[in-house]
């Protein structure tokens, strides 16, 4: 999973800037809508099968709690939830620590988390649903739907204040957005003059006041690309732009499309761009790291997820619960279907979870030099997910074909078709690269497989 360098010396994770909460949800139009919520069933999430019945050793599974309990004890994490499912059944479900340290509220199985870049696979699924309906093609220039991207230019030199550019040799296409090869960037990267240009325009840890998603895309289109589309990999606002394409093609706002085409069919009751006021006591508090790498409450960003944002960020704007995201991963593992509701063909899911980088390249070969929490060796990128092509290259126990992603607040998931396995880890600590959560979790899960 790719991580991005920040000025503090720590790194931001696989995510764009936190969604700006805006100034409220009154008035008319998109900002007047309140988040959809179904009826909440307390205690619905629980283990569904004995671990031994699905090839997991209970004693070895306990190593997961023993290991990550120390993160809570010494203050590295406020609290966490881990869910492991095999053969479609939840075999291991544990919570530990607090969802709100200051209020003394524990993490519970129904706690809601800001999932940040784990929103990206949802947006990618939405785009591929439109692809399946014949409404767009992966090779379509983005400018067919967003004319502001009609004449992209590429940075060639100079400072952020006086950048030199040239016309791009290739239009930005839909598949470039899905694979982060469009040449776009994030303002919180600090490795390129164009990153500074994004910050100068107000795109660092949020969005400029008054912009909606369409306005943000128009602003990004005016900025130069880092490289010609398809020539390199750079984690970026590409999935936000993809979300705007979904809006234009579908004729719906992104939240409406998600709700009607993904969340309601999958019975994802807690997933939206904001938590309903009646459910906000379930929203975990957000923490950042101090100089000693301990969790401290982030008061400014705790507003995120409490009201509908101006920018509906398909790249990082969703909140969700373990129950909901588990259902999303089960849909993926099931080849696009869950409980009789089919979102995608199994062929489409298989196509999305192959490496789409040109020539089958690794992220290590194509990524621009940002910091990475885990090695990118052997990792490719599909249409919305990292794809593990050669596990031996990463030196982390896993399976070939495993696909995954995570979010800025240290959340993570992966799907392993070879082992018929899904894993979900939820917490709220920014940035995600401070502690080796994902690599340690991966080793601890796979060592518990004994069949």
Automatic annotation (TrEMBL):
Region: Disordered; residue ranges are 1-36
Query: From which source organism is this entry?
Result: Actinopolyspora xinjiangensis
Q: Where is the Beta-lactamase-related domain?
A: 64-446
* Pfam families in the cross-refs: Beta-lactamase
Q: What is this protein called?
A: CubicO group peptidase, beta-lactamase class C family
